[in-house]
Amino acid sequence: MTTTTLITGISQLATPPTPGPRRGAAMGDLLQIDDAAIAIVGASIDWVGPRQEWTGRTDREIDLQGRAVIPALTDPHTHAVWAGDRYRDFEARTQGASYEAILAAGGGIRSTVRATADAAVTTLTALAAPRVAALVASGAATIEVKSGYGFDPDAELRSLEAIAALRATTAARIMPTLLIHLPPENLADRPAYLRAVCEELIPEAARQGLAAAVDVFIEREAWSPDDAVTIFAAAKMAGLPIKAHVDQFHAIGGVAACVAHGALSVDHLEASGDLEIALLGSSDTIATLLPGVTLHLGITAAPGRRLIDAGAIVAVGTDLNPGSSPLFSTQQAMALAVRLNGLSPAEALTAGTANAAAALGFNDTGALIAGSRADLLVLADQDWRSAVWTLGASPIERLFIAGQEMQQ
Ligand code: NIG
Ligand code: FE
Predict the structure, then answer these.
(1) Given Cys at both, which of 69, 272, 336, 346 links 247, Cβ 3.0 to 4.6 Å?
(2) 309 and 166 in one domain?
(3) Buried-state track 94-118, b at ≥16 Cβ within 10 A, e below 16
């Protein structure tokens, strides 16, 4: 016999009204119910509505005594697997060196690769586990983790194995992405490296079930849109959806290439202009904001407001990584999207829930409706807006993932 748990005492329930991607003005439309209740059966939501309308059987009641409830968050973009640190870069930037100049001089991402590429899988997993735990504590029930600090195919596969092993350390759903990050330094034969990526690494990662998507960093210091299109073709052959880091520092045609090839998401967009905004406004490719980068590097904020006004599907994530965004809170990424990217609180909630899940291809989480996974957050406050208002402390009191309460 199934057990029904009824959560009551919900002062305010706020959720996107449907799961799946929501675009433009619809991002601001939330379903709000005062004095709500949620019935959970197993891992799923069975019913949501005003408390007095529940007529079903209740086996167990959890009375929240006047707390707001929202869907648990999805973090659609992290680089949680790295070794070493970037404290030197951090200090150098305070003395005027730019992120791009540090990278061009062989530091930055390349220094993290030197520290990560030779690390054992168990070491990488042990380093990443507390980072993922921090994201979960900040409200994320689904988390994407990228490889990308290995470069050579074996090292990338080891990073992906470390990501797979993370699953044993957390109740959160972990989605692995193979990131084709930068061409290695002093690369004598770029086409040969790209061939190895396309003909060996991508098919092998797919064959072993170690990657659920392929991401490419499209930037002057990294891969061109043409290189990316070559990589996209290999990803499609392997049956993997594509994502890309695009327009972080320069808009070099990445958005157009990604939209033309049906990318699941384009992430960053700090340097996007009218053309890119118009393209994303009428595309199903999700525009993912990473405001931690704007905060940490002091670069222009991605045009979140303009993207939504143009009709785009906008998501938000931490981009947790040691170089451009040491942001260990998915909730704060959402909160920063309000301050830095011009989103309203309701739009930020949609960006961090339904749209962030959609950026990973999920429509079973991110909205509190019957049939969805019971992934939800109980806030300490009675008003749901505390979830995007709060900075520097956690507004979250309790977290349920797939119907199970996490011990925080
Ligand atoms: O998303 N810019 C490309 N990749 C990462 C940063 C990685 C790093 O600096 O270590 C990003 O910003
Ligand atoms: Fe990133």
Answers:
(1) 272
(2) yes
(3) eeebebbebbeeebbbbbbbeebbe
- Burial degree of 364 (CB within 10 A; 0-12, 13-18, 19+): middle
Q: How far apart are CA 342 and CA 75, in angstroms?
A: 19
Specify the length of the chain in residues.
Answer: 408
Q: Hey, what amino acid is at 257?
A: A
User: From the alpha carbon of 103, which atom of ligand 1 is closest?
Assistant: 9
Among protein residues, the one whose CA lies closest to atom 6 of ligand 1: 324
Element (H, E) at 193: helix 190-196
Q: Find out whether the beta carbon of 294 lies less than 6 Å from any atom of ligand 1.
A: no
**SS3 state at 368:** coil
**Integer CA distances (angstroms), 235 to 35, 93, 153, 192, 396, in order:** 47, 36, 15, 17, 38
261 shares its domain with 400:
no
Which H helix or E strand runs over 112? helix 109-116
Residue nearest to atom 8 of ligand 1 (CA): 323
* 42 SS3 class: coil
Same domain, 286 and 317: yes
What is the distance, to the nearest Å, from the Cα of residue 188 to the centroid of all Cα atoms in its chain?
A: 34
Q: What is the pLDDT of residues 131-158, one digit of tens each?
A: 999 999 999 999 999 999 998 999 999 9
Give 89 Cα–ligand 1 centroid separation in angstroms: 13
Amino acid identity of residue 379, one-letter, is: L
Distance (Å, whole) CA 323 – CA 306: 27
Q: Is the CB of 78 under 6 A from ligand 1?
A: no
Which structural domain range is residue 385 located in? 4-72+364-405
168 plus 249 within the same structural domain: yes
pLDDT digits (tens, 9 = 90+) for 276-334: 999 999 999 999 999 999 999 999 999 999 999 999 999 999 999 999 999 999 999 99
Nearest CA to ligand 1 atom 11: 324
pTM: 0.98
Number of domains the chain is built from: 2
**CATH number of the domain encompassing residue 302:** 3.20.20.140
Other CB atoms within 10 A of residue 361 CB: 14
Q: Which of 299, 237, 316 is nearest to 100 (CA)?
A: 299
